[in-house]
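Sequence and fold
=================
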Amino acid sequence: MLLGDHLHRIGNDIVAAYLVVTDEGITVIDAGLAGHWKDLQRELAALGRPLSDVRGIVLTHGDTDHIGFAERMRRETRIPVYVHADDAARARGTEKAKATLASAGRFRLKPTAEFLAYSVRKGGWRTTYLGDVVPVQDGDVLDLPGSPRIIGLPGHSPGSVAVHVPLARALFVGDALTTRHVLSGRPGLQPSPFTDDPEGALEVLDRLTGLADVDWVLPGHGMPWNGPVDAVADGVRAGA
């Protein structure tokens, strides 16, 4: 799906990953589920770009529904996979999430069933953890197409980040927030379920206020959001 100049989405409102497309190459933001590998290949084919044009993958955090095809791509193409140092162990599968069931929020049968069915269909049950990652920190600007900048947003996980790509006028937020609760189906800006530190995740959203060159706020779950970035923090808190 074409969202704008340099910006494409694969997956859907249940689980999504993104491509930053430039003449110099492509940066992938998050790797969805294992089955999104085919979606990536189809999107590249539609663009007329080979897999070798992908220069790297940047993970917003290390949860299994964001690392999907990352290890397969790393092994086959030898590209780097970047993740915040505090989530490196989670991405490697040596450290598990600390979120409790209480942080999941309200369940409704239909959207929960849709999420589980989609996850199974896209191979969520066969996650391959990362064999190697490149650790990053808050403030790093990566030597990748679009020059993505890392903004630390610890809360959902210790190493959750947003990724700001001014070239694409995009802010990728992973699970720092959602625009569609995958278990209740509730739309709109709100906290993501299964967050390690719900209060901390709300507090750090102020780090997004004042960012320039943002037309799109892009979560890992839910519809792309194109309201003013300065409204994000208060909007998520109001939806809490």
Remarks:
- The chain is about 20% helix and 25% strand.
- The first helix runs from residue 36 to 47.
- The longest strand covers residues 16-22.
